Amino acid sequence: MKSKLTCLLICFLILACNNNNSLSFEPLTIATDSCENCTSVRIEIPEATGKTKLSKTINSALEGEIIALLNFDEESDAQNLEEAKEAFVYDYKELSGKFPEESMPWEATIEGTITFENKDIITIKLESYIYTGGAHGYGTNRFLNFDKLNGVELYQEDLFNNLDEFKTYAETLFRKQENIPADGPINNTGFMFETESFYLPDNLGYTENGLSLFYEPYEIASFADGPITLTIPYVEVNSFLKYPQQP
């Protein structure tokens, strides 16, 4: 009898553990009403369902990133996506009231996609385009990486066994990709690394093709150069990762 109870308990624990990192999503769309010459906001992201720690972590992280993207004056106290949308529209109305000659409607488009998922890791990329006046808008990507088992967001220092060693390796690949001499200054061909030395981008994440390092416009180059991306196949980067992946 004891042995049957023990087996049942073990099976229950295994199912419970497996359930902790199981995920399902529903599409979430938040948008302003369509009208001519109006400020527009459109947000389309995957929303994690259920009440698990992981679901709450993912939804909270996505919400925080999007609120920050829509925060024009850095004084918004928006607590959710609906309030962030309304604050963006309100900020435009406030500014256009003061400067009617520069009242071209603003635009914000944010789309979230899952770029990688297995039993250990899930990565969601937020692609955004924000226009708040001027000659052009600003487009960028944000990668959010999550540990599925522990239900936590992973930051840059959480991804590597030794961050400095990886940075050295990434610089070698970056120089090769961008045709920068190995023994020359990192800005030798026109890049604009502020410290005159290589550094990792703020955004990096798991994709099906490998670990993607994404430098936003202006981060290391001019706006005209656009974003700079370095994708390292897992077969090359796995030795540096705390969460290695099958090539």
pLDDT average, as an integer?
89
Read across the widest sheet, the strand sequence of neighbours is: 1-2-3-4-5-6
What do we call the CATH topology of the largest domain? Answer: Heat Shock Protein 90
Terminal CA distance: 46 Å
CATH class of the largest domain: Alpha Beta
Name the CATH superfamily assignment of the largest domain.
Answer: Fervidobacterium nodosum Rt17-B1 like
**How many alpha or pi helices?**
6
Domain DUF3298: 158-234
Domain Deacetylase PdaC: 36-137
Keywords: Signal
Pfam families: DUF3298, PdaC
Helix and strand arrangement:
Layout: H1 2-20, E1 25-31, E2 40-48, H2 53-70, H3 81-98, E3 107-117, E4 121-131, E5 138-147, E6 152-154, H4 156-159, H5 163-177, E7 203-207, E8 210-215, E9 228-232, H6 234-237
Parallel strand pairs: 2-3
Antiparallel strand pairs: 1-2, 3-4, 4-5, 5-6, 7-8, 8-9
Helix pairs in contact: 2-3
Describe the structure.
The protein is an alpha+beta fold and 247 residues long. The protein has two domains: 19-154, Heat Shock Protein 90, CATH 3.30.565.40; 156-240, Heat-shock cognate protein, ATPase (Actin, Chain A, domain 4, Alpha-Beta Complex), CATH 3.90.640. It has helices spanning 2-20, 53-70, 81-98, 156-159, 163-177, 234-237; strands at 25-31, 40-48, 107-117, 121-131, 138-147, 152-154, 203-207, 210-215, 228-232. Strands 1-2-3-4-5-6 form a six-stranded mixed β-sheet. The chain is flat and about 55 Å long. It starts with a helix and ends in a 10-residue tail after the last helix. The model is unreliable at 1-19 (pLDDT under 50).
